[in-house]
């Protein structure tokens, strides 16, 4: 018997650009440091207020340095 749990979460998707302060997969995975997490902090706070424990941010969850992963993500959007 397969039991599937439904998980609710919020998604932040926005226009990607080359702004140095944009959080990336490398930043979040600890490979780089960034100076600002303001957008992420505001998004997470809003998500918490909506009662969700999980959030997904495309710029942080998609490795844009991996062409295959990037292509699959763009195709799936």
SSE order and pairing:
Elements: E1 9-12, H1 25-28, H2 38-49, E2 54-57, H3 58-61, H4 67-76
Kindly name the structural category: alpha+beta
What is the percentage of strand-forming residues? Answer: 5-15%
Biggest sheet: strand arrangement: 1-2
- Rg, please? 14 Å
Describe the structure.
By secondary structure, the chain is an alpha+beta fold. The protein has helices at residues 25-28, 38-49, 58-61, 67-76; strands spanning 9-12, 54-57. It has a two-stranded parallel ribbon. It is globular and about 35 Å long. The chain starts with 8 loop residues before the first strand and ends with a helix.
Concise description?
The protein is of the alpha+beta class and 77 residues long. It has four helices and two strands; from the N terminus they run E-H-H-E-H-H. It has a two-stranded parallel sheet.
Task: List the defining traits of the structure above.
single chain, 77 residues, alpha+beta, 2 strands
